[in-house]
């Protein structure tokens, strides 16, 4: 299939893209073997819906993940043809579960958490879109994400923001646990070959595993689901191997992070040593000054003290 273009957000942190939907579609295309021209445009303004990814072919554009999957299946590039009716129903059920339970937590984590938004999300997307779009695109995406969480997550329940956040993360963890149980010891959800469910789960979980978020309440729980972590690693190594240049960049980044961690670890000890050295120098100076003064005083006293001053030279007796 010629002249098929896929516009996505660029990759980072050893991922082919940092966006959940872009990762999902990229994985689906890799699994199906479709020939496609991937363009990291980082420009949602050219999308019909203002979002990425966008699949373009024969003058048509598709932006929703489900629409892209359906179009590829119609062109005989699907990956679920061998599944039975129960397995196909499982895909629909888990896809709905992910959208209602895990997606709100991911949106809240990346866009609703102020520390993550300030430290990671806004700088990353601002750098990706460039100036002047960096002035408004990240804020627009922030509003869209937070509005969606606000309107779709328990709008009829009266609770504080902290209570809502706790509930969002709790249900996300339960969703991750269910995925882990469904995967079991299999390499992929339905056996030895990947399905659209594997692509969808990969799109949701891989950024949580790879992105250096300063706050990540879901990563600890996800780390206990070893099979899901292995699923993401398996997909990355088999379908998205790093190039030689990317491997070298990764090595340099890891060395820099290790050196920074070493420096931070040595900081308290180095500071302690400097403080002790300064205190020792000050005490030595004080002791030297004190003993020097005592020595000078003893010399003066040995010469006769201050009450028996000798008569100035050259001054004779006064005549009577």
Automatic annotation (TrEMBL):
Q: Domain Mitochondrial outer membrane transport complex Sam37/metaxin N-terminal spans what residues?
A: 22-141
* Pfam families listed in its UniProt record: GST_C_6, Tom37
Domain named Metaxin glutathione S-transferase: residues? 172-235
Tell me the compartments it is located in: Mitochondrion outer membrane
The UniProt keywords, alphabetically, are: Membrane, Mitochondrion, Mitochondrion outer membrane, Protein transport, Transmembrane, Transmembrane helix, Transport
For this protein, the parts annotated as crossing the membrane are: 274-297
* One annotated Gene Ontology cellular component of this protein: SAM complex
One GO term (biological process): protein transport
Recorded hits in InterPro entries, A to Z, give: Glutathione-S-Trfase_C_sf (IPR036282), Glutathione_S-Trfase (IPR040079), Metaxin_GST (IPR033468), Mito_Protein_Transport_Metaxin (IPR050931), Sam37/metaxin_N (IPR019564)
- Into which family does the record put it? Belongs to the metaxin family.
Entry protein name? Metaxin-1 isoform X2
What species does this protein belong to?
A: Lingula anatina (Brachiopod)
């Amino acid at each position: 299939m010629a002249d098929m273009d896929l516009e996505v957000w660029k990759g980072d942190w050893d991922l082919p893209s940092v966006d959940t939907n872009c990762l999902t579609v990229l994985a689906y295309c890799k699994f199906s073997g479709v020939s496609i021209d991937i363009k990291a445009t980082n420009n949602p303004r050219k999308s019909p819906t203002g979002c990425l990814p966008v699949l373009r072919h024969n003058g048509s554009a598709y932006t929703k993940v489900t629409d892209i999957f359906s179009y590829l299946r119609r062109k005989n590039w699907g990956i679920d043809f061998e599944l039975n009716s129960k397995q196909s129903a499982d895909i629909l059920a888990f896809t709905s579960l992910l959208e209602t339970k895990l997606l709100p937590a991911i949106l809240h984590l990346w866009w609703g958490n102020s520390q993550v938004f300030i430290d990671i999300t806004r700088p990353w997307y601002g750098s990706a879109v460039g100036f002047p779009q960096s002035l408004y695109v990240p804020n627009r995406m922030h509003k869209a994400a937070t509005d969606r969480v606000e309107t779709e997550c328990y709008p009829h329940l009266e609770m504080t923001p902290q209570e809502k956040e706790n509930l969002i993360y709790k249900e996300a963890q339960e969703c991750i646990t269910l995925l882990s149980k469904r995967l079991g010891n299999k390499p992929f959800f339905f056996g030895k070959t990947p399905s659209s469910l594997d692509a969808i789960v990969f799109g949701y979980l891989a950024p949580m595993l790879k992105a250096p978020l300063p706050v990540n309440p879901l990563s600890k729980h996800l780390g206990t689901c070893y099979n899901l972590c292995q699923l993401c690693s398996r997909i990355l190594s088999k379908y998205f191997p790093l190039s030689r240049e990317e491997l070298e960049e990764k090595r340099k980044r890891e060395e820099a992070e290790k050196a920074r961690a070493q420096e931070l670890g040595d900081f308290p000890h180095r500071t302690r040593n400097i403080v002790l050295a300064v205190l020792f120098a000050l005490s030595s100076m004080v002791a030297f000054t004190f003993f020097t003064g005592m020595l000078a005083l003893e010399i003066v006293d040995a010469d006769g003290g201050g009450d028996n001053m000798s008569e100035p030279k050259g001054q004779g007796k006064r005549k009577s």
